[in-house]
Every structure is written in structure tokens, then in C-alpha cells.
Amino acid sequence: MASNPSDLVDGFGRVHRDLRISVTDRCNFRCSYCMPAEGMEWLPREDLLSYEELARVARICVERFGFDGIRLTGGEPTVRAHLPVLIEKLSKLDVDLSLTTNGTSLPLLADQLVAAGLQRINISCDSLRADRFEQITRRDELPKVLAGIDAALAAGLGPVKLNVVVMRGVNDDEIVDFATFGRDKGISVRFIEFMPLDAQGEWTNEQVVTQDEIVATINSVYPLEVVAGRGSAPAERWRYLDRESGSAGSDVGVIASVTHSFCDSCDRVRLTAEGMLRHCLFATRELDLRAMLRADATDDELAAAITAEVGAKWAGHQINQVHFIRPARSMSQIGG
Ligand code: SAM
Ligand code: SF4
Q1: What's residue 102's pLDDT?
Q2: Label partner for 273 (CA 20 to 30 A): which of 52, 83, 115, 225?
Q3: What is the residue range of 158's domain?
């Protein structure tokens, strides 16, 4: 084990400590902003990194570069077989270990995930109305997702957060309903500005409901004050004035990638399910770690390649500027 981790720094002085791992590109939903209804071509099984390979990259990031956070995502991470086996391997690295999921598998899996060492969870849900939920996800599964939220709470995952992508004319009339739901359940809702990553290329700026609009809408019903000290977290947070600070469901967050980009404080790198390291969700280049892993590269060689890739990281994604290039792959393929 390398005894002294050194910072993984890019050309803008940003230190990287957070790894997002996509464990699969597959999903049991077909959210309209993420995937087409039919015809998705999944990666062949042998192209996915094995759990041993994923855990090796994670270990190198922790040992060599002092990473302290790992989030598993996808696609839908829980559709990959034996996910608790991976969680158990990663939990040995002693980092803040979390998972982003659509929640449908949690009634079955939540206890096993916690037993394997999972600490925190984000569950995605874009509507609390069954008919609308089905329109967005193309699956009639709202009851299962709601049961998944309860299962996560009962299993002791904490905090449980709810991810809500807000789209104008689709679900922006549910902002207060979600705030109420979070307050009642004791969970933190994270509203996400809709980003230009949709597989079908349907994104337009007009569909983005901005952070300012979201906060004003909630504040008109539940008065809020901003929480200072965001650090490198993607969400800006607000506290409900009528709730005790730090209590369950006492805050709400907004991930404003479009109108208040947080690239300046970004500390993340991403590993796709087939082993490509990306220094940004919107990156136009990636490092083929799978080829290196399968050509028996040493830890030193892998660490050097990761250092060079992060060294080439750009200042930011520049959504809304003329030279912005949409990634060729959707969030489910890159890892959300
Ligand atoms: N399947 C899991 C889930 O839905 O939580 C994990 C992967 S999903 C790609 C991760 C998150 O990205 C979800 O909260 C999803 O709503 C969000 N997402 C996907 N496409 C997006 C987009 N174009 N803009 C904003 N958020 C997006
Ligand atoms: Fe699946 Fe998540 Fe994409 Fe929806 S957002 S299709 S649940 S990967």
C-alpha cells in the first residue's frame, strides 16, 4: 500500500477526492429524458469491469490520491447481480460510500446493502402522481419506489435523499408537493436542473426550471434560509426556518448545473461501466482504464495515467455557450 497519498490536482488547482462509479448501463426504467422507449443497446457482459477491477481502481484512488467518497450509480446499479458483493469490497476502503438508485429494488435489497456497508442513498423520483410517474419513466412503478424509500429509511440508511429532475411543463407544479413529502418523511429533497444529456436530444433551455425559481416557489410556502459552507458538494442547501437545524427533513437542496455551475469546486472523476475514466460528466475525452487493467498494468502505471487524465481536465462544461458540445452518450451510459 502506498503510505502517503498525494493530491490528484488538475491544471486549475482543484483537488479530486470523489469517485462516481457506474456499475452498469442497464436499467429497468426508460425515463424519457434518459433513454429511448425501445432499442437501447446494452454493453456486452464481458465489456463491463468486473467487481475486482472496479474495486482495484477504487483502491488506487483511495491509497494513492486520498479519495474519501465513492458513489455507485448507473444505469440502475441495483440491476447488476450481487451488488452487495461490490459494496462489501468498497466498504473496506473506509470512505463515505453511497448509492444512487431509482429505488425499485430497495424493498428487497436495502437490508443487504446496509449489511454490506452502504451508508447513504439517493433515490430518484420525478413525480408523486402515478399517471405522470408512468409517463416520465415509462413504467407503472411509483408504489414500488415509494416502498423503496420506506425500506431505505427502515434499513437505517441516513441521510436518505430524494433526487427530483424538474422540467418545465412536466413536473414543475409538484415542487411544493415534493417539499411537503420530504418534510413529512424526514428526507432531504434535491431538486436537479434539467441538463442537456438527454439521449433523444430534446433538451431546450426553456425546459430548465432554474434554482432561483425552485427556491422562490418553496420559500413562498415554507420560508427558507440558505445554509452556508457548501464546499465541493454539488447541491446548494436551504434550511426550513420552522425546523430544527440538522433534524431529518429540515433542509432542501438544488443542484443547479445549468444556471449556477459548480465547476470551480468540482472534486469528481467518473468511471463508466466499461472502465472509461472521465474527468467531467460532459467531457469529450476519456481514458481507457479497462484496456490497461486487462493488459496487466501495474498500480504505478494506472495511477500515472489517472494523474495525466485529471491533469488535462477543463475549467468547466460551458452549457449555454455556443461552443458547448453535448456528450455523445446519455447519463445512463456515463453514470449519473
Ligand atoms: N438509475 C439511477 C437513478 O435514476 O437514480 C442512477 C442513474 S441516473 C442517470 C442518476 C440521476 O441522474 C437520476 O437522479 C436522474 O434523474 C438524473 N438524470 C438523468 N438524466 C438527467 C438530465 N438530463 N438532467 C438532470 N438529471 C438527469
Ligand atoms: Fe434508468 Fe436512472 Fe436513466 Fe431513469 S434516470 S432511465 S432510472 S438510469
Answers
A1: 98
A2: 115
A3: 8-334
